[in-house]
Structures are given as C-alpha cells and as structure tokens.
C-alpha cells in the first residue's frame, strides 16, 4: 500500500513537472514545429501535412495525460513522431527523474500500439535530408503517404511525360 502511494505521489509530481515543461515547450518551440512541418511537407507533399496531428493527447500506462509532438493515425497504423530538444531530453542535461519519465512516456506509447520515431532538434537543423530519408523509410509504405512518381516535380518520369 505504501509503495502504491509513493508511486502515485511520484506520478503526480511528474505530471505537474510535465505540464510546466509542456507549456514552456509550446511557447518556445514554434521554430522546431515549423521546421518539422516543412521537412514533412518537402518529403511527402504539402497536402499530406493534413494527416499530422500536433500535440495529440494520450494517457500513459499510469493514467496520466501526455501529448505526442506529432501523431499520425492512418488506417490501422499509429505513428508518434517526436522532436527532442537537448534542453528537455538529453540524458546528460536533464534530471534523472525527467529521463526516466521520458522512458515511461515512450514505453507507454509502444505498449498502446504506437510506432515511435524520434529526432533531435539538431538533426532537423543540421541533417534535414537524412531526416527526410528516414521519414520515407519509416512512413513511406503507408498508402496515404506514398509519393507517386507522376507528382514529383524533379522526377525523370514526369520529364519524359512532358516531352511527349
């Protein structure tokens, strides 16, 4: 009984910290959100951005409310796309409890059937082509996100059609 009370108290403390972190993240993270949306649109096309659900709520395995940076729920597939800034997610820079909380959060998503993909903000800024390649590898088989050759502006097939 005492163990359950301690776990619940830790969870309540964690939730309070998460709420304050989430508020500050939402206010100061527009550049990372904009950059991810731009990379996603460059990868799959602007019309596919409609499938992204920013700040999607979910409950972790302990029943506490959380948010997914970007959720994609298409057909039977559920994808959680996370952008990790160093300030809030780097194990060397965050408190031990915050690091463990991130693990609980990710494990909760996996347990609930989400496919979780994470990128560091630095990857978005320094290696956007690699992020695009990974997005295609991770999500490109979904029929709603597939890139049809005829619609790709720099595609050889399209150029050959234009020559006709």
Key features?
alpha+beta; disordered C terminus; four-stranded mixed beta sheet; 164 residues; 7 helices; 4 strands; disordered N terminus; globular
Tell me about this structure.
It contains seven helices and four strands; from the N terminus they run ααβββααβααα. A four-stranded mixed sheet has the order 1-2-3-4, with helices on both faces. Strand 2 and strand 3 form a beta hairpin. The radius of gyration is 19 Å and the shape is globular. Helix 2 crosses helix 6.
Quick structural overview:
Its EC number is 3.1.21.5. The chain has 164 residues and is α+β, with helices and mostly antiparallel strands.
Major sheet, described briefly? 4 strands, mixed
Quaternary class: single chain
Alpha carbon gap, first and last residue: 77 Å
Based on secondary structure, the structural category is alpha+beta
Total number of strands: 4
Query: What's the average pLDDT?
Result: 77
Number of domains: 1
Low-confidence regions: 2-8, 13-29, 157-162
Please state the CA-atom Rg, rounded to the nearest Å: 19 Å
Q: Helix tally? A: 7
Helical residue percent band: 40-55%
Categorize the overall geometry: globular
Biggest β-sheet: strands ordered side by side in the sheet = 1-2-3-4
| Percentage of residues in DSSP E strands | 15-25%
Order of helices and strands: HHEEEHHEHHH
Biased composition (Polar residues): 17-29
Region (Disordered): 1-29
Biased composition (Basic and acidic residues): 1-16
GO molecular function: type III site-specific deoxyribonuclease activity
């Amino acid at each position: 009984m005492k163990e359950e009370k301690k776990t619940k108290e830790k969870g309540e403390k964690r939730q309070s910290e998460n709420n304050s972190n989430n508020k500050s993240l939402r206010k100061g993270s527009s550049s990372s959100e904009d950059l991810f949306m731009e990379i996603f649109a460059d990868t799959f096309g602007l019309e596919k951005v409609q499938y992204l659900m920013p700040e999607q709520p979910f409950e972790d395995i302990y029943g506490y409310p959380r948010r997914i940076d970007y959720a994609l729920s298409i057909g039977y597939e559920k994808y959680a796309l996370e952008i990790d800034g160093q300030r809030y997610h780097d194990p060397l820079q965050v408190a031990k409890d915050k690091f463990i909380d991130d693990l609980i959060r990710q494990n909760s998503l996996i347990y609930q059937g989400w496919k979780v993909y994470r990128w560091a903000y630095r990857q978005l800024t320094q290696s956007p082509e690699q992020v695009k390649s990974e997005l295609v590898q991770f999500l490109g088989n979904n029929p709603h996100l597939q890139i049809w050759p005829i619609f790709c502006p720099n595609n050889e097939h399209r150029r050959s059609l234009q020559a006709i």
